[in-house]
Amino acid sequence: MRRLSLCLLAAALPAFAADPFDDYEPVENALVVAAPAPARDAADPAVQRGRYLVNLLGCASCHTDGALLGAPEEARALAGSGVGIAISDPLRVRYPAVVYPPNLTPDPEAGIGEWPEEDIVRLLLEGMGRHGGRALPVMPWQSYARLTPEDATAIARYLKRLAPNPHQVPAPVAEGEPAPAPYVHVGLYQRR
Ligand code: HEC
């Protein structure tokens, strides 16, 4: 019989233990993070639709500081997460690769201020990053790929109308390097 279980675990540079699960503690993470009001063009129907979709699709539950640990900083909703997500298997390697959900406000340096709307649409519908590389599957674009182009454009338009926030998230961490900030491990496991 096969069993699947979904785990959300957090680590903060623990001492390594014989059982890798000893390095982790479960996180209570039952929350909804609201998409903030736009700073401009609030009456534009596409911006309103974009905000509705960002609420519906839960973007802020990753792209907000603290949210992955169940304690979101609502005032910095969508301005990126200083809590990362492990993208290689921490049950196999001591220091997994970690990525920090980026700042989605239009700050030109810390956020997506330089991204044209078309690039945001392409990322949502095709998983393509700005420079051709595929976005990591931990950014769940596969779940967004069936959005209509109009809805994906509405999301892009809404994000570009947020107040720019200069919050910098840590750079991605390669496997084998200790992460500078806490991270969670989200996994779907199949019993052998
Ligand atoms: C499960 C967590 C999670 C959710 C939910 C999520 N994202 Fe992401 N997102 C990420 C991660 C992690 C990355 C970085 C991916 C990479 O480096 O390849 C990312 C990258 C991005 C990027 C690229 C930004 C950049 O500077 O590289 C955009 C734009 C984006 N997400 C928008 C969204 C939108 C819009 C939603 C909701 C419709 C959303 N994300 C939902 C985790 C998430």
TrEMBL record:
Domain (Cytochrome c) ranges: 45-163
Keywords, comma-separated and alphabetical: Heme, Iron, Metal-binding, Signal
Pfam families, A to Z: Cytochrom_C
Signal peptide annotation: 1-17
Molecular-function annotations in GO: electron transfer activity; heme binding; metal ion binding
PROSITE patterns for the chain: CYTC
Name under which the protein is recorded: Putative diheme cytochrome c-553
